Amino acid sequence: MNQTWNFSAGPAVLPQEVLERARHELLDFDGRGMSVMEISHRSKEFLDILHRCEARLRRLMGIPSNYHVLFAQGGAWTQFAMVPMNLMKRGLAQYIDTGSWAAKAAEEAAKYGKVEIVASSKSDKYANIPALPAGWLNPGADYVHLTTNNTIYGTTWHQIPDTGDVPLVADMSSNILSQPYRIEDFGLIYAGAQKNIGPSGLTIVIVREDLIGDVAAYVPTMMQYRTFAENESMFNTPPTFGIYLADLVFEWLENLGGVAAIHAENVAKAKLLYDFLDQSQAFQAVVDAPHRSLMNVVFRMENEAKEAEFLAKAEAARLYFLKGHRSVGGMRASLYNAMPIEGVAALVNLMKEWE
Ligand SMILES: *Cc1c(COP(=O)(O)O)cnc(C)c1O
Fold it and tell me: What domains are defined for the chain?
């Protein structure tokens, strides 16, 4: 079989080694003659996986002991609601609108309290990260929300804004573990697993312990962070297979040298593609250099017909899922941690050949 390169924005490529290991263990985990999917989440075998998975994530991201790591479900969308349900104590949150995920998070939060949009790049079709106006931070806000990497538009916050004593909440779904972050800069981080961690169905939440407290009486048990924190994410049955795969991905990442090492690789991968785009006549990057994402590279050709032609040629060469998000068109190459630089080189070579 020829090599396949998967540029999907999510669910996305997983490390080959991890898939091979999971395949090997699918019928015989730990010499038991059964798979991880078939054992109790309360068994010692599964608890070992859960504890190892959390310990690896703590090491990889440098998560301090006063933060909880929660294994939830329901994707980022559920966090759009859980964040305000749990954190909007005074009834005011500030959101920064850098794309449709950020806008949807704000819309969802507005069901629970007052939402103030402090800056937006919507009028620029979200092709940049907006400047924050002077004096933007409201010290009376319960939290500030931002999206670290805008998956659809290919933009990233390269400098995390200082929110002082107001907790910063980040949707890190599409760039968690791709670059070092200082966890102390955030009150809460959430990420659906399906971009940089593992299969869809698992959602990671990292939350400072003082932010988990009493919630309004209407909040369902499964929508309270406290429920997860007080029960090792095992109040009900957690997504066991997702946690198992996440543990394998974290192990793979540790063996590579951790987040700093993968970040260096991600920089090299993105540079290869952006450098080509910046000198190309046929292909153009959409986002200006200071705001460019390492994870999602958005680019265009002269017209849609040319793009369709190139996409067909790419598929014939086994380069898949390069079509841009349906809301913006164009093309997008997602270069998550598990995409090797050889895949990016294959794409650049195909573009050169085209040109
Ligand atoms: C993919 C994505 C989402 C949506 O995640 P679900 O898990 O489908 O709810 C939200 N935010 C960002 C930044 C994303 O990349």
Answer: 17-256 (3.40.640.10), 258-354 (3.90.1150.10)
What pLDDT digit, counting tens, does each position of 237-247 carry? 999 999 999 99
- Can you list the alpha helix ranges (DSSP code H) found in 4-157? 16-26, 44-61, 75-87, 100-109
**What pTM does this model have?**
0.98
Ligand 1 mutation pick, 151, 298, 332, max ligand atoms within 8 A of CB:
151
List 97, 142, 171, 247, catalytic entry:
171
Classified as helix, coil or strand, 189 is strand
Is the Cβ atom of 84 under 6 angstroms away from ligand 1?
A: no
Say how far apart CA 278 and CA 276 lie, in whole Å. 6
> Angle, to 10 degrees, between the axis of helix 341-354 and the axis of helix 258-279?
0
Write out pLDDT tens, residues 321-342.
Answer: 999 998 889 999 999 999 999 9
Task: Look at ligand 1, atom 2, and give the residue with the nearest C-alpha.
Answer: 173
Pocket test for ligand 1, best of 71, 73, 77 (most atoms within 8 A of CB): 77
Q: What is the rounded radius of gyration, in angstroms, for the C-alpha atoms of the chain?
A: 21
The whole-number pLDDT of residue 1 equals: 54
- CB of 154 sitting under 6 A from ligand 1: no
User: Catalytic annotation on 171?
Assistant: yes
Q: Is the dihedral of CA 146, 147, 152, 156 positive or negative?
A: positive
CA dihedral 167, 172, 178, 180 (to 10 degrees): 0
Q: Which DSSP state fits 323?
A: B
197 within 8 A of 249, measured Cβ to Cβ: yes
CB 9 within 8 A of CB 192: no
Residue 199 near residue 71 (C-beta atoms within 8 A) = no
285 CB less than 6 Å from ligand 1?
Answer: no
What's the pLDDT tens digit per position in 59-117?
Answer: 999 999 999 999 999 999 999 999 999 999 999 999 999 999 999 999 999 999 999 99
